[in-house]
Structures are given as structure tokens and as C-alpha cells.
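Exam revision sheet. Question 4 asks you to relate a sequence to its structure. Input first:
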Amino acid sequence: MRSTPKGEGAGLWTALAAPGSAALTLFFIIPLLLVGVFSFGVINSLGQPIIGHTLDNYRAVFQSYNLSPLLRTMLFTAVSTVVCLVLGYPVAYLAVRYARRAGPLILALVILPWLVDYLVRIYAWQSLLAPAGLLPTALAHLGITAPQIVNTSWAVICGLVYGYLPLMILPIYAAVSELPAEVIDAGKDLYGSAPAVFWRVTFPLTRDGVLGGCLLVALPMLGDFATAQFLGGPNSTMIGNMINNQFTDAGSQTVGAALVVALIALLVLTLAVAMLLARRRVRLLAVMAKAGKPEPVAEPTEMAAAL
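Answer key, C-alpha cells:
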């Protein structure tokens, strides 16, 4: 078979990458740059954004009426991510370790709700939690007075967990699937109790799946606005709602652009922390490999120095 010259192969890959690169530049990079430019702009007498060089929009971002939703978004995201991890890890672990052939079926049932539009699912939760909804009505038949759930922060957190839980389960399922059963059995012989085996063997070996799941869940949560809009109240507004209001109701697109830049900065910070954690884990694994010791669980001085 005739080998392809190096220059010809490079040209072929460049030609194949050109359409995707053009689409990415046209529909992602250029709009993002425009948002950054207009975040320094002003609004003219017709209510339209024009290019400027003011920092007033960024000063508005850190005003209390915008800062509070930003901090609330971070809190909702953190709580919802932890709840997704607590609920998703057992589902993924049981589906791999104990469900056997039914594991893919469980995974399919987890993904099945995603075939329905996100807004439809949020409307369903609104109908479920409303004062005259299914849950309060069922509790009333049992003689229990249902507390106010919809239009509260708890309803928003429940909606976020429901909406993004599959994104936590999938990477953990993949990580647990790659974990040999012999390793867990060896951990039982070494540590005895199930909690010790989990925390010192199973969880460290599936940490990459956990980190991936947390990223897949947290990043879209930070920009979510539909959940808070339909399930929350005035005291549960998220930063996505503020951005939506600036571009639709308030008419201050330049402030909205500054909010978008602030949200992007928050997303980049989250990714940077995740990459730092992943890099530390790679260094730890490199130390283990150099020492010729099996993963995971001793904590020698060399490993501590690597961290």
C-alpha cells in the first residue's frame, strides 16, 4: 500500500477541519468577542447598544442586585452538584456491580427522560409541586398538610438535580465499569470493612469519573435560568435569569453582556480548579508508578510531597 506523504496528509486534515473551524469561528468565537466588546459599550437614545469604553457595566455587575443572584447561583450549583453525586454514585455503582445484565437497562432508564424537552420536564415538576398539584393532593388525602415547595429555593434545587442527574451518573458508570472486581476483592482482604474498601479503594479509583460528572453537572447549572424561572420565586433568582432579563425586559444589553463575561469567568475558574485537581492526581499516579506500588491507598511522604 502506498504511504501518504506527510505534507499531503497534513493538507487533507486541514481541509477536513476547515468547515468545522469556520462554523466554530462564525457561530461561537465571533459572537463571544462581540459580547466582550459590547460589555464595555453604552445604550444610545434608541435603546440599542453601541461600542464604548466604559466600566460602568462591570460596576453594575458587582452591585447587590446582581451580586446576590451570582452568589445564589454558586450556592445552588454547589448544593445541587453534591446532591447529584450522593444520588448518582450509588445508582452507577449498583448498576455495574450488582445489576449485571440489567445495568445497561438501568442506564437507559436514566437517560430516557432526556428524550423529553427540558422545559416540558420543568413544567411537569411545576404541576407536581404546585399547591393544587399531585404531591400536595396526595398528602392531603393522607391527612398531611404539604409545605409550600414551589416558588422556593428548594424547588429550584430539586429541579436542577432532576434535570442534570444523568450527567453525573454516566461518567461514574463508565469509571466503575473499568474497575476490576479483583481489585475490590483484594481491598476486602486488605481492609476488611466495606466502608474502608470504598473510601480507600473504590472511590479513589473512580475519582476521575466523579470529577467528570461534577463538571458536566456544575457547568450547565451555572448558566441555567429556566429552572429558577418556573420553579423559583423572587428570592431564588439565578444569574441566568438576570442575564435573560437584561436582554429582554430591562433593555440594558450592555449590562447583560458584562454579566455574560462574568459568568464565563466563573466557568473558566471552575474548569481551572478541575484541571488543577486532575493534574495533582496525575502527579500522584506518576509517583506511584515510579515507586512500583499499586494504586491507591497508602500515603507515603513522597506522595504527600507530590501533592
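Marking note for examiners. The beta strands are 42-43, 49-50.
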